[in-house]
Design goal:
The complex is a heterodimer of chains A (about 325) and B (about 240). With about 325 residues, chain A is mostly helical. Chain A has one domain. Chain A is about 80% helix and about 0% strand. Chain A contains 14 helices and two strands; from the N terminus they run αααααβααααβααααα. Chain A is globular, with a radius of gyration of 21 Å. Chain B is of the alpha/beta class. Chain B is built from nine helices and ten strands. A six-stranded mixed sheet of chain B has the order 6-7-8-3-9-10, sandwiched between helices. In chain B, strands 2-1-4-5 form a four-stranded antiparallel sheet, with helices on one face. The chains are: A mainly alpha (about 325), B alpha/beta (about 240). Chains A and B meet through helix 7 and helix 8 of A and helix 2 and helix 3 of B.
Chain lengths: ~325, ~240
């Protein structure tokens, strides 16, 4: 048991070290690709952290991602970089707490619609503010951050998100989230403070999403609401987490990496049909792999093992 | 005998329907009390208010003299109230032992890890489910799910246990062992308030019965007296039998 744990930790650290060294061996195209991929890995982990066990399907991912990107754009000239990230994270936290307090009582499809509406609302508010108050739609971000710097930050954030998910999965908090996802009435009667736990997890996940936006924003140089609050980001994050399996530790990564590469390849080779193919991929995943790839593989394996074991039992 | 649970003037309204109307009763420390009445008389609603699943529209509930009405279910569970549900609420995709561990992890004891599993196995053994500990809850039969739910309620270390038709649907042998189990819980010091329709069990277990009809309390007496009360017979069987 402990030796297995040691193996897992060693494996995790080895991968992180290898990825940290990556920029010294590859060209700028790969770095750009990896930045995009790590962004989605972090978003998918953060999404699954809250939505996986509780089954509260959130489409607010881009609301927080966009808040992070916009915070970066607004404060990039007035604040030193580390402080900038801190401020962005705090804004994301504040919004998540307000939204969470107001909405986590909603359940099922109402929550989905609300979170989708939230992302639109934030986008429209920012647009309105920029047009009517500051008088300019669109901002420039000039920060002395290199692509490698962004890559390392996203790597650190992804590793952090992964480690937190791992810790939650092993703790009482993880069990509490699972019980909430299964039956809130039972959760309450067993003494679980449902509202507090949901709010805390929603906020944690939102802060990670906000930081992804804030860290990635300098890559764009120019930001406007339609770029920062593009709803496709929410849908991609969702479908990545679902593809891998939102209830499993490795699920979001197993979904984000292949899907990101697929979408890159599609947008390079079929730029005109990208959206159509994207839609087909969504439908396929929901129909063929409703519980995610990992679950599918695992079920397939146990099926084979039991099938192989049966003749042996008969011989006994 | 001092009262553990004190219910006074309890009411609950669902829109225009007064489901529970000014009900008062008390349950002594260590007693097994039956809460009876025809279908739709408001028994489960009373249990729901005691456990915190529903908020009362009026009246007070107190445990050990401390008011618990108005608190949420998770707070009330910390005061030592645990329950089973009329329609079993298993956590289907968790294993049987995990179902019980939940109550240990977030209950009054805050047990976790190996210690929690050992305790959970003890409770499963008590209800006769230890051999199915690592099965998924959804794979159990309905009756076994009821046993599991009772083990989960016991794991919360309750002072007051609320049973909502826990004995319904058992065959005669299972009923006898179910009655034996509840009796042993009672003698271990847990106070029990049970909604039940199985008369055999009520006569065997309950020292006192509170009987409701159409949201109103119509009798509250030692079991034999309560069951022979003319108002109770009328409620169940109609005027000509009273």
């Amino acid at each position: 048991m402990t030796s297995r744990l040691l193996c897992q930790i060693t494996g995790f650290l080895t991968i992180i070290i290898a990825l940290t060294a990556l920029p010294f061996f590859v060209g700028p195209y790969t770095i750009t690709l990896m930045i995009g991929m790590l962004g989605y890995v972090a978003l998918a982990i953060a999404w699954a952290m809250f939505s996986g066990p509780t089954r509260y399907v959130s489409l607010a991912t881009v609301a927080f991602f966009g808040i992070g990107a916009y915070a970066c754009a607004v404060f990039n000239e007035s604040l030193p970089y580390p402080l900038l990230l801190l401020v962005a994270g705090l804004i994301g936290l504040a919004v998540a707490l307000v939204v969470g307090l107001a909405t986590l009582r909603l359940a099922g499809v109402y929550f989905v619609i609300f979170t989708f509406g939230l992302a639109e609302l934030v986008r429209q508010l920012v647009t309105w503010f920029e047009v009517n108050i500051t008088g300019t739609l669109g901002r420039y971000i000039f920060l002395p951050v290199t692509p490698e710097g962004i890559y390392w930050q996203l790597l650190a954030l992804s590793a952090f998100a992964f480690a937190i998910s791992w810790l939650i999965g092993r703790s009482r908090l993880g069990l509490a989230l699972k019980v909430i996802g299964e039956d809130e009435v039972v959760a309450a009667h067993c003494g679980i403070a449902i509202a507090r736990i949901k709010l805390a997890l929603f906020a944690l996940s939102a802060v990670i999403m906000t930081l992804v936006g804030a860290i990635q924003a300098p890559r764009w140089t120019y930001v406007e609401p339609s770029i920062a609050f593009n709803p496709t980001i929410s849908f991609l994050t969702l479908i990545m987490a679902l593809l891998g399996g939102a209830n499993r530790l490795m699920g979001p990564i197993m979904g984000a990496v292949p899907l990101f590469l697929l979408f890159e390849w599609l947008s390079a080779n079929f730029p005109n049909h990208y959206s159509i193919i994207l839609g087909l991929v969504f439908i396929t995943i929901v129909f063929v792999l409703p519980n995610g790839v990992l679950d599918f593989v695992e079920k397939g394996l146990t099926h084979r093992i039991t099938a192989a074991a049966k003749p042996a039992e008969v011989q006994k | 005998m001092s009262a553990l649970l004190e219910v006074s003037g309890l009411s609950r309204r669902f829109g225009g329907l007064l489901a529970v109307n000014d009900v008062s009763f008390s349950v002594g420390q260590g007693a097994i009390v039956g809460l009876l009445g025809p279908n739709g008389s408001g028994k489960t609603t009373v249990l729901n208010m005691i456990s915190g699943h529903l908020l009362p529209s009026g009246g007070d509930i107190s445990l050990h003299g401390k008011r618990i009405s108005g608190l949420g279910a998770s707070r009330i569970s910390k005061h030592g109230v645990a329950r089973t549900f009329q329609l079993v609420r298993a956590l289907p995709s968790l294993t049987v032992v995990e179902n019980v561990t939940v109550a240990l992890a977030f209950g009054r004891q805050k047990l976790w890890g190996v210690a929690a599993r050992e305790r959970a196995m003890g409770f499963l053994d008590q209800v006769g489910l230890a051999h199915r500990a690592d099965h998924l809850a959804e794979d159990l039969t309905y009756i076994d799910q009821k046993r599991m739910e009772l083990a989960r309620a016991l794991a919360a270390d309750p002072e007051l246990l609320l049973l909502d038709e826990w004995l319904a649907g058992l065959n005669p042998t299972e009923l006898q062992s179910g009655i034996g189990l509840i009796r042993s819980l009672g003698s271990s010091g847990i106070t029990i308030l049970m909604v039940e329709h199985v008369m055999e069990a009520i006569r065997a277990l309950c020292s006192q019965c509170v009987i409701m009809n159409a949201g109103v309390k119509i009798a509250d007496a030692p079991t034999a007296d309560a069951l022979s009360d003319p108002a109770v017979i009328t409620a169940y069987l109609g005027e000509q039998h009273a």
